[in-house]
Amino acid sequence: MLLFLVRHSLPFMFVFAVLGFLIPSASQAFFPFLPFVLFTLMTLTLLGMKQHELIKRLGSKEIWFYAALHSAAFMAIVGVLGWLLAFDSDLLLAVVAVAATGSLFATPAIVRALGFDSLQAMAMTIATTLVLPVSICVVLILYQTEDVTLDWISYFIRLLVFIFGPMLFSFLVHYFLPEESLSRFLVKISPYTILLVFAFPFGLVGSFRVLFDQNPMMALNYFLIATGLCALFFILSYFTYRKHGKAIALTAAITSGNRNVLLTYSIAGGLLGPAFLPLAGALQIPTYLLPVLTRWLKKITKISLDS
């Protein structure tokens, strides 16, 4: 059964998003455990990467150009679009916070399942995660309208735990443990780390279902906005990197479309306003449909190139 889930992990991510929507009580009950799953997934993902090659990739200016596109550029674009569409202050804060959010740590596993360079996706993911603290501070300064002050001590503790904690742990493990023993362990567990990803769509979508039960029309608007954000990130990233080849373009697109909204919420919490969690829940359905669509696009573009 586990092997079946791993083999068909991409469509099952979407299935778990739908299940979370259909069973909101289970989704909301699981939500408090998501930070622990996030920490575990980040740690295992980093452990599975070749440290020296990853650091070399992170030293590339192209990676940091991508991080600037992923956060600063999209924050500006989404902010202008939200202003033109007359979003209220809470919704505008939420959509710009989503644009500031780094990529999912599940992205390398998804990219690997698609047959692309997972190390490139990992470097992109880490770069966007490292700029997240600055991006979120900018969002809160520019778009937070309520009289709420940022608890800097709590903020930095969360940064240390959820961002630098897994990175430091991974570095120490690689430094102190024999690479041969670690490699054997990682080979055994790496195919199953993607199963942890199922927890995120299942646990996050419940907040969107609550909004749907209270106000179906508002929930529909949030779903359309969430779908539009995913499409915007995916399409703009794809065409920005299209000249570098189909593989790089699709890697950048899927990395940009996958947003680690749980990490952003774990760091900033209620400062993101009442609209963020319902929007984050609505994002789960288009986000986890993206890998399936990407695999289809990969096949279509391959056919067109071969014909």
Characterize the structure shown:
This protein is mainly α and 307 residues long. The longest helix is centred in the last third of the chain and has 31 residues. The termini are far apart. The C terminus is likely disordered. It comes from Marinomonas profundimaris. This is Membrane protein.
Q: What labels would you give this structure?
A:
single chain, 307 residues, Na+/H+ antiporter like fold, 82% helix, disordered C terminus, transmembrane helix, transmembrane
**What is the helical fraction, as a range of percent?**
over 70%
Global geometry: globular
Number of helices: 16
CATH C-level class: Mainly Alpha
Biggest beta sheet attributes? none
Number of E-type strands: 0
In angstroms, what is the radius of gyration?
Answer: 19 Å
> Structural class of the helix and strand makeup?
mainly alpha
Terminal Cα separation, in Å? 38 Å
What's the topology here?
Layout: H1 2-7, H2 9-22, H3 24-30, H4 34-47, H5 51-58, H6 61-84, H7 89-100, H8 107-114, H9 118-143, H10 152-176, H11 179-193, H12 199-214, H13 216-241, H14 246-257, H15 261-268, H16 276-306
Quick structural summary:
With 307 residues, the chain is mostly helical. The protein contains 16 helices and no strands.
